[in-house]
Write a structure and sequence with these properties.
Length: about 600
C-alpha cells in the first residue's frame, strides 16, 4: 500500500492538480525554448495535450502514443487517454493531440500492456473505480471492453506478457504474493503461480531467456519466474538495499545491452544482476550510488537507443518525508558504471515536485517522450550518440498477403530491452516491432500485429509480424524500416501503386515474395449491361480451399459463387449479374491466407 502522506496528497488531487498545472505552465512559459546539453536535447512538444497527464503512457502499434489523463469520470482520477500522433514528417514534437474513447473505469497507478494483436490491456488502479476490473482497448473500433472478473483487487501492480501472449498479472491482495494469468483469447483470469516473497512495490525485468526477475519488497532477496517451470524460484541475494524503509519504494529496472539487469534504488543504492543463463541463480553486484544523495521512490527511467539510461530522481526519502522534492535528472552509463547529471526538461537543474510525478516512454524514432503528472506540457528528449548496433532489427523477408497488408520476417524485431520503466505503478513496454514508411520528407507508420514473440534480446531467433499500411497511403516509392525501442533496421525499398506493394529491393535483391500470396486481382468489376455478366480474376498461391461469395450492400451473403479446393494458379470466375438492381456490391474471397474483398458495381 502507498504511505499515508501520498494517500493524503492524492485524495486532494482534484483540487491541487489545477494549481500545480498553473505553476507548471508558468515555469514552461519562462523556459519554452529548446535547451541543449552534451548528453542530449530537451524540446517541448509544440502543442499542449487536451488534458493534464494522469500517469502512464503506451506506444500503440501504429506509432501513435496514448497518455493517461485526469480527464473523464466524476472522481478526478480520469478515464481518458490523450493520443499524440506524429506529423507528416514523423515529428512527435510537432505532433497533434486527440482523445480516444473513455475507459469503462477510472484508474490511477494500474497495470498496462500492449498485446500481441495490437490491443491495449489495463487492470486495477490504486485510486479510481477500476481496482477490481480489467479491460481491453481495440484501436480498430476505438472501444473498451471489460474483461472477465479478476476476483481480487489490483492496485499499483506489475504485469508481464508471456511468450504465448498470456498476461501474468500481480494482485495486491492477501499475502501480496498472488498472481493470476489472463488469456487474451477468452478474456478469462485464472490462478497463477504465487511468488516466493512480496511482489508489491517491485519492478519486474524480462531477461533474455524469458524469465522475469524482481527483488522482494523491503528485502535483499530476489526471485525469478521461470517459464519452462511455470513457477517463481528464489534467486541470489542483493548486496545493497534498494527499498527505502519508510515508503517501501524502489525505482525502475531495465535490461542493459550486455544482458545484465540494472535495478534503481530509492535508497540511493543501485544493483546489477548477471544471469546464469540457466534456471540456476545468477549473481548480484552493487552498482554506482546516485550522486548528490539522490534516490528513486517511484520514478521514471528509460533505456535509450545509445545504451544509456535516463533517470528521474529526488532526494533520498526520510521518515518525515517519503516523497521529497525536487526532481533531478541523470544519465547512467553502464560501460563506465557512472552517472552524469543533466538539466531538467524545462531548464535549470530541478523541477519542484516529487519524482513519482514523472513518466517516460520510448518512441519509434529513438527519442523519449517525457510527461509530468498534472501538466499538459510534454517534452521530447533526444539522446546523443548513435543507436546500438546490437539493438538493430534485421529484415530478411517480406511476403505480400493482399493489397497493403504484408508479413515481415527477420531478427531483432523485439529489441534488446523492454524500453522504459517506472516500477510497479504501470508498464510502458515497447519490445515489439513498429514499421515506418518514408517517401521523400513524408513519414507514415503502418499498423503491426500478430508478432510471434514477446521476448527480448532474441539474437538469431526468427521474428515475424503482420503489417498493414495506413488507409489512403499515396502511391509512390517508399523506404520501409522496422524499429524496436526506437532502433531502426536497414531500409528496404518498395513501390506502392495504390493497391499493392511491388518490387521490394533489399541490397540488390528482391525479397518481396508473391509465391504464397492469394489475391483478387480485379479491384473493381463492371458487368456488361447487355449480357448481365462479368469476370472476376484471382490467384491462389498454393493448394487451398477457396470460398468466393457475393455480398449485398449490408455485407450479407447473397450467393456462394465458389467453394472448393484449388491448386496453385491463376483463375477466372464468370459471374452473372442478372436480376441485380443497380448499386455497389462486394465479392469476398476466403482462403487460409485470410479474407479479401473487392467491389462489384452494377450499372
Amino acid at each position: 500500500m502507498k504511505p499515508h502522506q501520498r494517500l493524503t496528497d492524492l485524495k486532494s488531487l482534484k483540487l491541487t492538480k489545477i494549481a500545480f498545472s498553473a505553476i507548471m505552465l508558468t515555469l514552461i512559459s519562462l523556459t519554452f525554448s529548446m535547451t541543449s546539453f552534451s548528453q542530449g536535447t530537451w524540446t517541448p512538444v509544440t502543442n499542449l495535450a487536451p488534458g493534464t497527464n494522469g500517469g502512464g503512457s503506451l506506444l500503440l502499434s501504429d506509432g501513435s502514443v496514448i497518455c493517461k489523463s485526469f480527464s473523464g469520470g466524476t472522481d478526478g482520477i480520469g478515464n481518458i487517454y490523450n493520443k499524440l500522433t506524429p506529423d507528416i514528417n514523423g515529428s512527435y514534437i510537432n505532433g497533434t493531440w486527440s482523445s480516444i474513447a473513455p475507459m469503462n473505469k477510472t484508474r490511477l497507478y494500474y497495470s498496462s500492456q500492449v498485446l500481441k494483436d495490437g490491443r491495449v490491456y489495463v487492470a486495477g488502479g490504486e485510486y479510481g473505480t477500476g481496482g477490481s476490473y480489467g479491460e481491453t482497448y481495440d484501436p480498430l473500433t476505438n472501444a473498451w471492453t471489460l474483461n472477465g472478473a479478476i476476483g481480487s483487487f489490483v492496485s499499483d501492480a506489475n504485469s508481464e506478457i508471456l511468450e504465448d501472449g498470456t498476461v501474468l498479472q500481480a494482485l495486491v491482495t492477501g499475502n501480496l504474493k498472488v498472481t493470476k494469468l489472463w488469456d487474451p483469447m477468452t478474456s478469462v483470469y485464472s490462478a497463477g503461480p504465487s511468488c516466493v516473497g512480496i511482489h508489491n512495490e517491485s519492478a519486474w525485468v524480462k531477461l533474455a531467456d524469458g524469465s522475469i526477475l524482481f527483488v522482494d519488497r523491503n528485502s535483499t532477496n530476489s526471485e525469478r519466474y521461470i517459464p519452462s517451470l511455470g513457477m517463481w524460484v528464489a534467486d541470489a541475494t542483493v548486496p545493497v538495499s534498494i527499498y527505502d524503509p519508510y515508503g517501501l519504494e524502489q525505482g525502475g529496472a531495465v535490461l542493459l545491452p550486455d544482458g545484465r539487469a540494472f535495478f534503481i534504488g530509492s535508497t540511493g543504492h543501485n544493483a546489477i544482476f548477471t544471469p546464469s543463463g540457466t534456471n540456476a541463480p545468477g549473481t548480484w553486484a552493487a552498482a554506482a550510488d546516485f550522486p548528490n544523495s539522490q534516490g528513486t521512490p517511484d520514478a521514471a527511467a528509460a533505456m535509450m537507443v545509445n545504451g544509456k539510461v535516463l533517470c528521474a530522481t529526488s532526494p533520498v526519502p526520510t521518515s518525515g518525508n517519503h516523497f521529497p522534492t525536487p526532481t533531478s535528472f541523470y544519465e547512467y552509463d553502464y560501460t563506465s558504471n557512472s552517472f552524469t547529471r543533466i538539466d531538467a526538461p524545462a531548464g535549470g537543474l530541478t523541477m519542484n515536485m516529487p519524482c513519482y510525478y514523472t513518466g517516460m516512454i520510448c518512441l519509434p524514432n529513438g527519442q523519449i517522450l517525457y510527461s509530468t503528472q498534472n501538466s499538459n506540457q510534454y517534452y521530447i528528449y533526444t539522446p546523443d550518440g548513435s543507436p546500438l548496433a546490437s539493438g538493430k532489427p534485421v529484415i530478411k523477408k517480406v511476403r505480400r498477403v493482399y493489397g497493403h497488408v504484408f508479413k515481415m520476417a527477420g531478427t531483432g524485431f523485439n529489441g534488446i530491452s523492454e524500453g522504459a520503466t517506472y516500477g510497479d505503478d504501470w508498464q510502458m513496454n515497447t519490445n515489439y516491432p513498429i514499421v515506418r514508411l518514408s517517401s521523400g520528407s513524408n513519414v507514415y507508420y503502418a499498423r503491426t500485429y500478430n508478432w510471434n514473440s514477446t521476448g527480448v534480446m532474441r539474437g538469431s531467433q526468427p521474428d515475424t509480424v503482420t503489417v498493414k499500411a495506413p488507409t489512403g497511403l499515396p502511391a509512390g516509392n517508399y523506404t520501409i524500416v522496422v524499429t524496436a525501442n526506437g532502433i531502426a533496421s536497414d531500409p528496404i525499398y518498395s513501390h506502392y501503386n495504390g493497391l499493392n506493394f511491388t518490387a521490394v529491393d533489399f541490397k540488390g535483391k528482391e525479397i518481396f515474395e508473391d509465391a504464397e500470396t492469394d489475391a483478387l486481382n480485379t479491384i473493381s468489376v463492371y458487368p456488361n449491361p447487355a449480357m448481365y455478366q462479368t469476370t472476376v480474376k484471382y490467384t491462389i498461391a498454393k493448394t487451398s480451399n477457396v470460398s468466393i461469395q457475393l455480398l449485398n450492400q449490408n455485407g450479407n451473403t447473397m450467393k456462394v459463387l465458389l467453394n472448393k479446393n484449388l491448386e496453385q494458379g491463376n483463375y477466372t470466375l464468370p459471374l452473372s449479374t442478372s436480376g441485380l438492381v443497380a448499386g455497389t456490391y462486394s465479392i469476398q474471397m476466403v482462403t487460409d491466407k485470410g479474407v479479401q474483398t473487392i467491389k462489384l458495381i452494377v450499372q
